[in-house]
Amino acid sequence: MTRGELARLLDHSVLRPESTETDILAGADLVREWGIGFYCVQSSFVSVAAAALEGSGARVVSVVGFPHGCARSVVKVQEATLAVQDGAAEVDMVLNIGKLKSGRSQAAASEIAQVVRAVPGTPVKVILENCLLREDEKVVACRLVRDAGAAFVKTSTGFDSRGGATVADVRLMRATVGPDFGVKAAGGIRTLADAMAMLDAGANRIGTSASVAILAALSS
């Protein structure tokens, strides 16, 4: 894989709550310089990122219900709608983990479907936060995300100290959703070896704040 090919699979992320507008603009500069395909930011900074990347070919991604997924469905729908109006080309929403773990999988699926319907034509990725789920819950979550009309399942927010992306989880997710669905690995991916391991396991998108370190490790 060439550096350019890998760059187009990266979602470069600037998501820390203390990130300033200066940080967002610096991230956009990095995305332009390295030819990165996607730039993931908080919804309040989507318009800044979109303006900074206009004409670059990079697509802005907004997180929704981030990082805990506990907001009411109507709030997630509104956040996604406003983010797309501001220039987001994709939405990464956090699953309502508590509803899933309460046995209310249909309520969790309904929320995903509401967000998908609110932003027609915009790919929706659903963050499962796998470190909080049992194996059977991961399988149920992957199936309900697929059936609710989303475009990707995503491993993690990267904000829970109990764990991020793992090769085992990516393999399980890919096996569950099938070959033609999106699988995004995110959370703790810091090196080229990390990124390649996730791609080899079945991911077709990588979320990371360490894009430069990953890409610089490829000679060209």
Task: Provide an overview of this structure.
The chain has an 8-stranded parallel beta barrel, surrounded by 7 helices. About 50% of the residues are buried. It has a single domain, classed as Aldolase class I (TIM Barrel), CATH 3.20.20.70. It has helices at about 5, 20-35, 45-50, 75-85, 95-100, 105-120, 135-145, 165-175, 190-200, 210-215, and strands at about 10-15, 40, 60-65, 90-95, 125, 150-155, 180-185, 205-210. Helix 4 runs parallel beside helix 6. It contains 10 helices and 8 strands. The chain starts with a helix and ends with a helix. The chain is α/β, with parallel strands linked by helices and about 220 residues long.
Shape category: globular
Largest sheet, order of strands side by side?
1-2-3-4-5-6-7-8
Q: Helix proportion of residues, in percent?
A: 40-55%
Structural class: alpha/beta
* CATH 4th-level superfamily: Aldolase class I
Please give the number of β-strands. 8
Give the count of structural domains.
Answer: 1
Average pLDDT: 97
| Main pleated-sheet profile | 8 strands, parallel, barrel
How much of the polypeptide forms β-strand, as a percent range? 15-25%
- What CATH calls the topology is TIM Barrel
Q: What is the CATH first-level class name?
A: Alpha Beta
Distance between the termini: 9 Å
Low-confidence stretches: none
Encode the helix/strand succession as letters.
HEHEHEHEHHEHEHEHEH
CATH architecture verdict: Alpha-Beta Barrel
Radius of gyration: 16 Å
Please tally the helical runs, counting DSSP H or I stretches of 4 or more residues.
10
